[in-house]
Here is the input.
Amino acid sequence: MPTTIAALAPLLIGGVLLWSGSLKLFGRHAAAEARRTALAGLVGEARVVPAYRILGGLELLIAVALIAPPPLWIDLAAGAALSAGFIAYLGYAALAAPASSCGCMGSRPSRISWRAFARAGTMLLASAAALLWAPSIAWYTELSGEPVLFTAVLAAEALLVAGLSPEFDHRWLLPLRRLHNRLTHPLSGGGFEIPLDSTVTQLIRSGVYRHTAAALRSDVTEHWDEGEWRFLVYSARYENRPATAVYAVPRLRYAPDDVRVAMVDEEEGTTLLTMDTPPPEDSRPEWVLTNPLPEHVRTA
Amino acid sequence: MDRRKLLTSAVLGGAAGLVGATALGSLSPEDVFAAEGANAKINPGDPDPNFVEGRITGITDTVLFVTSSDGSLHSIRVTNGTSIWKLNPTTFDEVKVGDGLYARGLRLADGTLAADSLWVNIVNLNAHVDSIGRGSLNLDHHGQRVVAHVENGRSAAVYNNTPAVSDMSMLEAGKHVKVIGAWHPDTNEITISTVYAAV
Amino acid sequence: MAALYGEVSWFCCGNSWGPCGTVGKGACGTCNSGSRQHAWPNTSAACLTITRPDRCGETLARRTCGHVHTTTNRCTGKAIATSIADCGPQTDLFCGERTCCGSVCGSNRVIDLTPSAYSAIGSLSTGLLPAMIT
Here is the structure.
């Protein structure tokens, strides 16, 4: 059994390298992916794409040497060295550029996590096991000897590598999580209260707001509900004096056209403006495009 | 309460006389005029004197003491016209030492910022939904894990062009979202105010 | 440049508090939440491969660090001039998204302002605004 596991290591490592090397060399988004990796920090922005492709070529070369006969220990040593080098690179990337993509196997960006380390570690262990226990046993000889066991172990190892690869998450982990969410509804049961933000977005979509918002100086200072209305209060500056803007917004229905406003001078105790329907839009496509800007528009 | 009644009648009709509420005081028109004149010209790329970013290190009756990320110290004066956001619009007594904030207002001659608006612990994250748990989203934000809690009745969702709704059930694992939320100081957790998602 | 219409949002940068702390000084190395700056989706070829506005049908000119754009909030007409300090936003993540203010709408996220710049033309709690960029 240990010899079988060790003997199929070249096939497993070769397969993984074949996959990752081809994507680095021939992938449609290879150049973009290269720029997202931490390689740029090592070789410089200008050389990152050629370096990424050279690495892909090296991976392909080692993959072919591992899979094609004859079985040589030097191929396994090269595989082990590549895995060890990759672990070192991941360590550097995790410290120097933790937000960069791992640049490992897929055309999809995947961040550096413990799984990337575990996968590279698995590759290193497999190479070391083959070097120790089966440096000159050809995988195809083992396959013809024990085809069922060989295939089963290879499938299990391939599944392990896929499980450790965030690049494949969209194939199995994500559908599983979505199915789980569909069955358990973790975000349901929200109650019937209307969040304030729903009222604010309704207000913002109203014509009354668009015609008065230039006078506002603050975010919402105060709000309360009364009957079918929700009241939102802002600090404002209207006709060159401090004012309070009070908007009444329908609370339980979506009707931005019903929004109304009053601008109040609380010091004087006077209402400066009320508006329950916005003035009609004029024929100009965009009033803010007028040059110079209208006087009431404050340019920051 | 009386003030609310008066403001309500002002907007819905039948406005009665109004009396100013001055619990936190207000700015004199002269202060505002002088400050606006002094701050008229700020070059693109330059720090904005009418804006403060940082963490609160002290609070008195109406003044917040803030240390910015660059180490500079600021005092921020809060008036009865100042809006205070902390997940929702809230009151001055909800603001605590240790909170992060963004403040916009007018820089007065004595160096104090007279705040128009305070946004306490506000964050705006573009993130990937790793997974969804009971009442929370696990987000990947630039490689960092952030737990975003849903608070019923307060958190809202905007799907594409729809108005904000309280129904979060259309959020999916594996999608990107933009979250406006309130950070829980010194943790990797936030509470969602609005989540924007493409469906 | 001809006026560009779209959505404007905000982002934090610099060594600020909260989840922002890990974001850093941006692609230009100068970004600070307290400065009048913005992120632009086409600051370099590398930047464009991340933001991909073309996937939403937006063709944006290449503008490098320090270039000044003026962003006008189409709800209010308030405008602010800011300089480029980072690459972003990732336009392609929300292709076709619309934000409206009265009858005026903006589609696709084409610019991200720092909190200091965004708060000069809108409220940080709104997150998105229809904007005109020149």
Notes: Chain B has two domains: 23-120, 122-197.
